[in-house]
TrEMBL record, chains A, B:
<comment type="function">
    <text>Catalyzes the attachment of tryptophan to tRNA(Trp).</text>
</comment>
<keyword id="KW-0963">Cytoplasm</keyword>
<feature type="short sequence motif" description="'HIGH' region">
    <location>
        <begin position="80"/>
        <end position="88"/>
    </location>
</feature>
<dbReference type="GO" id="GO:0006436">
    <property type="term" value="P:tryptophanyl-tRNA aminoacylation"/>
</dbReference>
<feature type="short sequence motif" description="'KMSKS' region">
    <location>
        <begin position="252"/>
        <end position="256"/>
    </location>
</feature>
<keyword id="KW-0547">Nucleotide-binding</keyword>
<dbReference type="Pfam" id="PF00579">
    <property type="entry name" value="tRNA-synt_1b"/>
</dbReference>
<keyword id="KW-0175">Coiled coil</keyword>
<keyword id="KW-0648">Protein biosynthesis</keyword>
<comment type="similarity">
    <text>Belongs to the class-I aminoacyl-tRNA synthetase family.</text>
</comment>
<feature type="coiled-coil region">
    <location>
        <begin position="339"/>
        <end position="366"/>
    </location>
</feature>
<dbReference type="GO" id="GO:0005737">
    <property type="term" value="C:cytoplasm"/>
</dbReference>
<protein>
    <recommendedName>
        <fullName>Tryptophan--tRNA ligase</fullName>
        <ecNumber>6.1.1.2</ecNumber>
    </recommendedName>
</protein>
<dbReference type="GO" id="GO:0005524">
    <property type="term" value="F:ATP binding"/>
</dbReference>
<keyword id="KW-0030">Aminoacyl-tRNA synthetase</keyword>
<keyword id="KW-0067">ATP-binding</keyword>
<dbReference type="InterPro" id="IPR002306">
    <property type="entry name" value="Trp-tRNA-ligase"/>
</dbReference>
Length: 379, 379
């Protein structure tokens, strides 16, 4: 009996990640592989040390190509939304580290078309406005403007379409419908969209590495079925676990329940209030009991958030764990640590976001990679 | 009992065009409407006089808009093929007349994408090569380079795609599949394509008139269902009958049986040989019988071709009809009249085609209309 569900539209229950690796047929990131990354990258990102990124497909081949000087490239994307939350930023933060350590090109697809065609309530004008807004948050993460190309489907389509017709010709409605949750009543735009999601994996004749939540894996199986017949590589992937929602350790942070997420625009007071009020605690009901029995870090969301990313110092996170488990650190105190970390992260993010406004044109059109990409038609 | 079939993929049997008007629910071009066209255009094209163009949708509204100074525009297209035959040119010749008389813009879509995605055997490189070749034949018809925009889907997609997503969002797989002959095994590119066929009907906020064979009518019913909800006009149409194949009065000229068609590249001797050998005759088996009984112009393909288009002189075609019916004109003589007409038409066409090479850049990119269209994104 299975007590969790993971697919591209839904993450439910307490996910057993070892089981998921078996189910999806992906590979675990073993200690050995982790060491190889450390050697190649010169260090290990906190999300690798803590096994937030825990699974992969063909990552060894990517590292081999890197080690042999053949190189690789990174690809990720974003379906624009009204506002991004902390969870949305996780893969970008990790991707930025990969780019920095491996000095590789990164392509970021902004799917303003898909978001519009998927949702009856949104206009194309909405999703393009959100695209601009989300791009600022993405740029704020700190990518290399000469090695990063951020493109919106509705703008870059001309350069992608010839190759998209070749990709599309290899995928029948039957093949895409299950993976993308389509049926007879789906509109014909959203049926075509999978081709546009696959094209960027073929932007270079090198291996493409996609960092993403493991729930996205099924999308790339289609790509892996057809890539080689078109003369490209099967997409490699590195998969993350899900940052738990504030309100409990199960599922995945979601925009549809605002109290469960910290938004990038949340001000200091909102962050404090949300964490204090909604963050699910592994602590005991009273101070007395807590001092006596200690908290449970396994189910404590503030601890998990610190562990996933917000407390990067390995020694310090161990201290926190010990002090909380032993009852020395109270729930309110642990929450305050997270509040401070979140607020200083968000403050820095918002400063970067302000500066990002000047950089949009570089990432989209005028940076070294962007410029080269606009001159290139993918066929 | 129905002894003919007409749909976008097949024309079979001897078409009863009056019945077809009822079946498709289109309107006949009445004497009254024809007179109105004559008044507006200053003359009547031979294909209108001879009722080759015989049916329409909303043509009155187009003429009303023209008469009131609101104007309209023309739209037609071509799925590129290895070589065009005479039948392919008929709608272009008529469209050229419409443009000349009404001084309106004309958009010609070259569906290199659709042709490629529809046919397992073709590469995109094939269909784009044919696109260039077919464009020469189209330009040779003599369109106004400042009022005509010829565009290939794979090139102009960026300017069409935002509006295409809006069109696509309004059409489900269920709705397009019957009309376009799609099913579960259709590829996802060809499923999306109907959106790209509809977008050009919305290139201007004026009525769009589409001259085409009546077999194409079903494609535009989808457009008529959704156009107004997007703030555009339902597409108007003017429908032609089918130029019969050389080999018999039934069906439609087809590239799949080369003997039944005269290709634009066929040299004088090939034309003579094909007409003499394959053209289906309404004459009698022997000269003696023919002199006595006369020929049947109703089923005689050489006569029908002369009547459709190649003998524009109304007095002369009546003479030929009478002489053939009375037995004065023999089958071989009638065929020779057609051979001479075809060869002089093709000679002129090929001269124009040579000159067309210099004009491609104007029709596609640099002409007055083309230039304006490249600066415009349809949203």
């Amino acid at each position: 009996m299975q007590d969790f569900t993971v697919n591209p539209w839904e993450v439910k229950g307490k996910v057993d990640y070892d089981k998921l690796i078996q189910q999806f047929g992906t590979q675990p990131i073993t200690d050995e592989l982790r060491e190889r990354i450390r050697k190649d990258a010169g260090e290990l990102h906190v999300m690798l040390r803590r096994k937030v990124f825990f699974s992969h497909r063909d990552l060894e081949s990517v590292l081999k190509d890197y080690e042999e000087g053949k190189g690789f490239f990174l690809y990720t994307g974003r379906a624009p939304s009204l506002g991004m939350h902390i969870g949305h930023l996780i893969p970008f933060i990790f991707t930025k580290w990969l780019q920095e350590r491996f000095k590789v090109n990164l392509y970021i697809e902004i799917t303003d078309d898909e978001k519009f065609m998927r949702n009856p309530d949104y206009s194309l004008e909405d999703t393009r406005k959100w695209a601009y807004d989300n791009i600022l948050d993405i740029i704020a993460v700190g990518f290399d403007p000469d090695r990063t190309f951020i493109f919106q489907d509705t703008e870059y389509i001309r350069n992608m379409y010839p190759l998209a017709t070749k990709v599309a010709k290899k995928m029948t409605f039957s093949e895409v419908k299950a993976t993308f949750g389509l049926d007879f009543s789906s509109n014909i735009g959203i049926i075509f969209y999978p081709a546009l999601q696959i094209v960027p994996t073929m932007f270079e004749k090198k291996r493409c590495l996609i960092p993403a939540g493991i729930d996205q894996d099924p999308y790339w199986r289609l790509q892996r079925d057809i890539a080689e017949s078109l003369g490209y590589f099967k997409a490699s992937q590195i998969h993350s676990k899900f940052l738990p929602p504030l309100t409990g350790i199960e599922g995945k942070m979601s925009s549809s329940s605002p109290d469960s997420a910290i938004y990038l625009v949340d001000d200091k007071e909102t962050v404090r209030r949300k964490v204090m009020k909604y963050a699910f605690s592994g602590g005991q009901p009273t101070v007395e009991l807590h001092r006596k029995l200690g908290g449970n870090t396994e189910i404590d969301v503030p601890f998990q958030w610190l562990y996933y990313f917000f407390e990067e110092d390995d020694k310090r996170i161990e201290e926190i764990k010990e002090e909380y488990s032993s009852g020395k650190l109270l729930t309110g105190e642990l929450k305050q640590i997270l509040v401070d970390k979140l607020n200083s992260f968000l403050e820095r993010h918002r400063e970067n976001r302000e500066r990002a406004k000047e950089l949009v044109k570089d990432f989209k059109y005028e940076g070294k990679l962007a410029k080269a990409m606009w001159e290139k038609v993918h066929e």
